[in-house]
Amino acid sequence: MALPPDACSLIAKYAASSRSTLVALSTVSKQFQTAAERAIYNTLDVRGHNRTIAVCDVLRRTPRVAMLVVALSVYGEEEESEEEDGDVDEEEESESEPESDYWQVLHQALVRTTRLRFLNLYFTNGDQPDKAWILDRCTFQLKTFHSDLIWDDHLTAFLSTQSHLSNLFLADYREPAPEEMAPPILPASTGFLPKLAVLECTFAEAAVSLVPGRPVVRVKTCFTHSKLEEKREELRAIVAALRRSRKRLRALDIADSSYTPAFTLELLASLTADGVLCADLRYVGTLVFPVDGRQVGQGASSSGAGQAADGAVSD
């Protein structure tokens, strides 16, 4: 007597912590195969050159399996255990494999994963990879997308198709050289990332471009300038963009390699000057506050040293 599909799925769920058990379970019957494969391929975390090629080759050759993938994370760097345990011959073989094969296989696998909802792509080993073309022709609709790919026409075109994306992380931004053309202009239409709620980027220009007209409630970015006047201008641009979000801001974290107590007060003054902007704000990152007070009951006072504090705002 065959078990009902719900029972097979429940058994596969309890065995989800053991990949080997799931593989064995998939050979029991057709029903168990379906449930086990769904558990095996629902979430994939692949690291390293050879392993990525092997997994992506399965996905591109087996559409039935590719459609089971909901969350995919791809890391270009090898795991430490792989580096320590692998012998020299394997390393040489890995290095000798054409780099183009890696990107082509990954691209073909992404095209097949039509039901993907969560995608993380991290390839950084010193330089940002200009390989956003691997997202061309992808039809999945993501909820979360984290990537260290260079911002270019391919990445812009891909994001323009993501009508359900709510969580976006962009690791870097390539400033164009004087002789180069300006980077792609973001579509001003509200149809571009209409559901974006969480934005994390290491360049303020992206926040200034992406926040207005979208329901962004959490922003994490950093100042790209170090000179005080340039940083003040950048702060004004960021605050102006935050005011144009379709929803009230709840969390803001603007990193700065040279925060000073004085500039911290300027930042807070800019945020609190607009009662609507800060009405729901509950977190403002880690800031350096000026401290010049007297220790209660001791009679000793501090000397006004700047102290780092977590800027959580209580209700």
Structure explained in plain terms:
With 315 residues, the chain is an alpha/beta fold. Among the domains are: 1-41; 196-290. The chain contains twelve helices and ten strands. The protein has helices spanning 5-14, 19-25, 30-41, 49-61, 63-66, 80-85, 88-96, 99-112, 153-159, 204-210, 228-243, 261-272, and strands at 43-47, 71-75, 118-122, 144-147, 167-170, 198-201, 218-222, 251-255, 283-290, 306-312. α10 links the parallel β6 (198-201) and β7. It is elongated, with a radius of gyration of 24 Å. Mean pLDDT is 80; it is low at 81-86, 91-96 and 294-306.
Q: What brief labels describe this structure?
A:
eight-stranded parallel beta sheet, single chain, 315 residues, elongated, two-stranded antiparallel ribbon, 17% strand, alpha/beta, MAPKK kinase Kpp4, kinase
Task: Please sum up the structure shown.
With 315 residues, the protein is an alpha/beta fold. It has twelve helices and ten strands.
Describe the SSE topology:
Elements: H1 5-14, H2 19-25, H3 30-41, E1 43-47, H4 49-61, H5 63-66, E2 71-75, H6 80-85, H7 88-96, H8 99-112, E3 118-122, E4 144-147, H9 153-159, E5 167-170, E6 198-201, H10 204-210, E7 218-222, H11 228-243, E8 251-255, H12 261-272, E9 283-290, E10 306-312
